[in-house]
Amino acid sequence: MTARARNLLFLFSDQHAQRVAGCYGDPHVSTPALDRLAASGVRFDNAYCPSPICVASRMSMLTARHPSRQDCWTNDDHLASDIPTWLHALGAAGHRPELVGRLHAIGPDQTHGYAARQVGEHSPNWPGVPFHDLGALAGTNNPDPRSLAACGAGRSAYEAKDRDVTEAALATLDRIAEAGAPFCLTVGLMLPHAPYVAARRWIQHYLEVLPPPEIPADACDHPWIAWWRANRGIDDVPDRQSRLARAAYWGLVSTMDEMIGRILDRLRALGLDRDTLVVYASDHGDHAGERGLWWKHTLFDESAKVPMILSLPGVLPENAARDEVVSLIDLSQTMIEALGGAPLRGADGRSFWPLLTGASRDWDDTIFCEYCTDPVPDWTGGRAVQHRMVRQGRWKLHVYASDPPLLFDLETDPQERNDLSRDPRHAERFKRLMALALDGWDPVLIARRMAQRRAEKDVLAAWAGRVGPPSTHMWALDPDMNRLEADR
């Protein structure tokens, strides 16, 4: 009989690049809590997001479906409420899923299977209504040169919110321990998402120890990547700005780790850790200056790879590393199985729980990641894109609807510098992977559907702007929470 967990604590952050963690080999970053968690459990070294953008990735993780299967590609797409999520599956199995913090769902459904929710969102539920105001840090949360111009020591409302989330999570664990019943708790953190602003102590520390980003002369420079750099104004970021932004990003990771440490310490102090599956993951990564790029939005590993750590004392091995290629859509199916629920039918994700418990060794090392957007959001530069990536074992193919593809052998080229798509020695492999990437994924049909969705969303945005529907499950963001200290 397959081992099960009684409880679940799922810690889900925003924009944490896999490589920026001590347990993933970063010698500079301070992440003692995540390192201890990895030492007590299993770390996946080849875990990916379903899309390198917040809402698309998060909604796919909820349903274990690819973005193109649920018309949820952009940060203003909403997930239909009649698509079952992993929370619905666990609720049907007798659990009571609770959420503290970030979900980042758009539209009227702000729970998607959670039975209770605390703290809530800092941004409105609806497009078409005024967006949240970051005050002195306005615009720095987006792929915008302002995020590199206004970076360094200070504090953002996102950090303030995560501190409230942490306190609420601690109080929830206290209540859970007193009740003595099984629990299923998600803690949604906003960090280390930009603004690239962190406490001065971290800025000073990382300015001293962090090396500059790697921007190798022989790095593969693709037409879309070159366009993205130029369009976003990051072709020539001054060295001081780059160093400050990187120090802040590493500082945000360390700040988040301190919060996670407090939550895990409380779990242990209450005696809840022995029967609890603890999972940590993030929705996508961040280039943080590597290869001359910032933020997410690309199919390169800096953007698409995510940390994924699972720990359950007495059931999962300790200090283990897995090299299977997995996705967040597999993680949701895995958490369902770990807690005894029935898998989501019709989903794309697959549970890897049997791999972890030793019940099976079978696994197909194939995952997909897609990034699609229309030309409307100002940060797209007026250009629609349809991109898809397939990773199969050591091989990784990037497909761009309007630009040449890229093929990499990650075993010999882990930094994705040497494009093999036109190498005749790999012609058959390239052909096979291209067919796999395009199977059931048509960029022309996607562009057409996105245009239809935009027309629908325009009506909803106009309605929301006129009617002003109430946003639910909100956290009060005060613009004055944001500050940037003078550089010194």
Structure description:
InterPro entries: Alkaline_phosphatase_core_sf, Sulfatase_N. This protein has 488 residues and is of the alpha/beta class. It has one domain (7-360, 476-484): Alkaline Phosphatase, subunit A. It has 13 helices and 15 strands. The protein has helices at 32-39, 54-63, 86-92, 146-149, 157-179, 200-209, 223-231, 239-269, 301-304, 328-338, 353-357, 427-438, 443-467; strands at residues 7-13, 42-48, 97-101, 116-118, 152-155, 184-188, 197-198, 276-282, 308-311, 320-327, 366-373, 385-392, 395-400, 403-409, 483-484. The strands form three sheets. The chain has an eight-stranded mixed β-sheet, with helices on both faces. Strands 11-12-13-14 form a four-stranded antiparallel β-sheet, covered by helices on one side. A three-stranded mixed β-sheet has the order 7-5-15. It is globular. The mean pLDDT is 95.
Short description:
It is built from 13 helices and 15 strands. By secondary structure, the protein is of the alpha/beta class.
- Average pLDDT over all residues: 95
CATH fold label: Alkaline Phosphatase, subunit A
CATH architect. name: 3-Layer(aba) Sandwich
So what's the CATH class?
A: Alpha Beta
Helix content: 25-40%
Strand order across the largest sheet: 4-3-6-1-8-9-2-10
Count of individual beta strands:
15
Main sheet properties: 8 strands, mixed
CATH superfamily: Alkaline Phosphatase, subunit A
Estimate the strand proportion: 15-25%
The coarse silhouette is globular
Oligomeric state as shown: single chain
Low-confidence stretches: none
Number of H- or I-type helical stretches: 13
Keywords: Hydrolase, Metal-binding, Transferase
Protein name: Sulfatase-like hydrolase/transferase
Pfam families: Sulfatase
GO molecular function, one term: metal ion binding
